[in-house]
Amino acid sequence: MRWTFLTTGSGISMLNSLWMAYLLGTIAVLWVIRYRKEIQEYIIFRKEILKCSASLRGPPGIPLVGNAHQFADTGKTIFTLAKMSQDINVGTFKIWLGPIMKVIVTDPRDFEIIMGSAKAAEKDTVYDFMKPAVINSLINGGGPVYRAHKKLVVPLINGGNLITEHIKQFNYQTKIMIKKMADKVGTGEFDVHHAIVPCVADIVFETMFGVPGKAQNGEHNILVEGTETYSKGRHPWAFLPFSGGLRSCPGSKYGMICIKVIIAQMVRHYQLETTLKYETLNIHAHISTRSIDGYPISLKKIN
């Protein structure tokens, strides 16, 4: 028979390990007791998610990662989803972004039912990433917060002020843009996006914030720089259609009137041409679908 004797140092080390295990075990038990209700709710929620997942088809994924690796290039998200839908050949399917399941709806009739529900006023948790900069606004606020803000904004958009008063600012800022475009006549193609963005920023500043917009004069404008900076890398799914269902965001009407004024002023003064072909147009998802190659146009003055 062999006997093993513990030295003083090894005995103390083992005792410390036992005490550490006991301490960690006690903390774990107390944590479970403290948050047992939340844990039970999460387990029930996960069971419902897995039950729903079993009834939906979806592309194969990688353990722990799911399908997240297929969306590494966020600019091609729309095309990736379209290809998945085509390969699976179903109108509604699931994808996994790590432990989070997302249901993709492609049938407009299904989308109409979903967006027609009052629950559509609630925002996805992905909007929480905006909270350090934007808190409980029309963009990321859901439920009661959204409805309260909407009651204040809708009369402004749908009332007479937009047509009788704001249209003056639309025309004023657009005319400034038209004058600046005169330098581009006969110089070949240029990206009209860089001319329109400062114009729209000045319009928003004057009509929404009530302060003069000076982006077209080359002055610092936090709206222009902030939009370009903070929209980079933004998840393309962190967006809900402005006119979707009961939300009926007034921004769609505001934006449409702004677009009409800008286009009307441009075609009134210039003949627009472009070498960009629809067949070779490359687009990507950047909040909305946009051209990767920009919007090159050339101008000819209309006498």
Provide a descriptive summary of the structure in words:
Keywords: Endoplasmic reticulum, Heme, Iron, Membrane, Metal-binding, Microsome, Monooxygenase, Oxidoreductase, Transmembrane, Transmembrane helix. Belongs to the cytochrome P450 family. The chain crosses the membrane at residues 12-33. It comes from Fopius arisanus. The chain is mainly alpha-helical and 303 residues long. The protein has nine helices and seven strands. Strands 3-7-4 form a three-stranded antiparallel β-sheet.
Features:
two-stranded antiparallel sheet; single chain; 9 helices; 303 residues; 3-stranded antiparallel β-sheet; mainly alpha
Q: Percent helix among the residues? A: 40-55%
Q: Provide the residue-averaged pLDDT.
A: 77
Unreliable residue stretches:
236-246
Largest sheet: 3 strands, antiparallel
Ends distance: 112 Å
Strand order of the largest sheet: 3-7-4
The SS-based structural class is mainly alpha
Cα-based radius of gyration, to the nearest Å: 28 Å
Total DSSP helices = 9
Tell me, what's the shape?
A: elongated
Our estimate of the beta-strand percent is 5-15%
Give the tally of β-strands. 7
Q: What letter string, H or E per element, gives the SSE order?
A: HHHEEHHHEHHHEEEE
What is the quaternary state of this protein? single chain
